[in-house]
Structure formats: structure tokens, C-alpha cells
Design goal:
Oligomer: single chain
CATH topology of the largest domain: lipopolysaccharide transport protein A fold
Structural class: alpha+beta
CATH class of the largest domain: Mainly Beta
CATH superfamily of the largest domain: Lipopolysaccharide (LPS) transport protein A like domain
Shape: elongated
Helix content: 10-25%
Radius of gyration: 29 Å
Number of domains: 2
Distance between the termini: 110 Å
Number of strands: 13
Order of helices and strands: HEEEEEEEEEEEEE
Number of helices: 1
């Protein structure tokens, strides 16, 4: 009699354990494929997709800059990877300096952004093109550490290490400067020519 009771208890506990494992597996499977969860939240991911983010920095009533994008991925660390971003800096006179690229990495704590891929910026009379540009809000500084092309009304400049201060609206070029003045020598074809 006691042997039958032990055998029944053993098989009952085994059936209960297997049933618990099957139920746990079912719950995990349903949770990972549940609709409506933000991207990356179901399978242990670390990000959420944000559509049309807009970040603005003001000083009193005055707009300093506005950063927007077609979409972004918000990391759990707080940083954002933005797609098709547009940063609009405001000069002291209120003019806008638009900066566009394919992607940007935005750090909300440092209030800085690194623009990557086909970066274009317009601050009349200059048009800037480069592969990577860094904006540091605290220092109000734009910086290109690699090579760049800068076009004006008649001047075309190539170089490396460009720094622009937003408040002063000054440009500083540190290395490898090539300047072509089309008014002095219009026969030079484009930026690739050499200055006389």
C-alpha cells in the first residue's frame, strides 16, 4: 500500500513539473511575439523606436537650436540614433543654419550630436559638405575633424579640421587648406583644381 502511494505521488509530481515547464514555455513564446510592444522590448532588446522626434533648446524666449528627424531609436542609456536628422542652429541675429545628414547620434545629457554620412550645412554665404560633423551645445561649437569642402560665392575651400563657433560665427581651419578663387582664375574647374 505505501509503495502505491509513493509511486502515485512521484508520477503526479512529475506530471505537475512537466506541465509547469510547458506553461512557462507557452508564456515566453506568447510574450516574445505579442503585438504592440515597442521594437526591441520583447526579445531583451535595448531600444524603442520614436517617430518624428523633436528636441529644442532655448535660452529664455530665444531659440538656440532645434533637432528633428524622420525617426530615431531611443536606447535604454538615453542616447538616440536619429535617421535623416535636421539640426537648425540660430545665429545671434536670428538666422537659421540648417545641418542635415543621413544619421546622427544624439547625447541628451551632453546636449551634443554627431552627424554621419553626406553631411550638408548652410551658413550664408558658405555651403559645407563633409562625412562627419560634431555639434557641442555647451560650447556652441561645430567641428569637422576629417576632410571637408566649403563653397562660397567665388571661393572653394578644401581642408581638414574645421571649427565654427555659433555665437561668434567664425570659422577656423587647422590643416590641409586648398583655396580656389573663381573670380581670379575662372579656368580652374571646380574644387579639385589647384590655386595659382
Amino acid at each position: 500500500m505505501p509503495a502505491n502511494w509513493l509511486r502515485t505521488a512521484k508520477w503526479g509530481l512529475l506530471a505537475l513539473s512537466i506541465g509547469s515547464l510547458l506553461m512557462a514555455g507557452l508564456f515566453v513564446w506568447r510574450t516574445s511575439s505579442a503585438p504592440g510592444l515597442p521594437q526591441g522590448q520583447g526579445g531583451g532588446g535595448v531600444q524603442t523606436r520614436v517617430e518624428r522626434p523633436l528636441i529644442v533648446e532655448r535660452k529664455g524666449e530665444r531659440l538656440l537650436w532645434r533637432l528633428q528627424a524622420a525617426s530615431a531609436e531611443q536606447k535604454l542609456t538615453g542616447n538616440m540614433k536619429m535617421y535623416e536628422p535636421l539640426l537648425e542652429l540660430t545665429t545671434e541675429e536670428g538666422a537659421l543654419i540648417p545641418i542635415q545628414s543621413r544619421e546622427a547620434l544624439f547625447d541628451p545629457v551632453a546636449r551634443s550630436a554627431r552627424f554621419l554620412g553626406d553631411v550638408r550645412a548652410d551658413f550664408p554665404p558658405w555651403h559645407l559638405e563633409c562625412d562627419e560633423l560634431f555639434y557641442e551645445s555647451g560650447a556652441e561649437r561645430l567641428q569637422v575633424t576629417g576632410s571637408f569642402r566649403l563653397s562660397g560665392d567665388s571661393l572653394h575651400i578644401r581642408g581638414k579640421d574645421l571649427t565654427m563657433l555659433r555665437k561668434e560665427e567664425t570659422l577656423a581651419i587647422a590643416d590641409g587648406v586648398q583655396i580656389v578663387d573663381r573670380h581670379r582664375n575662372p579656368a580652374i574647374p571646380g574644387i579639385g583644381g589647384t590655386a595659382p
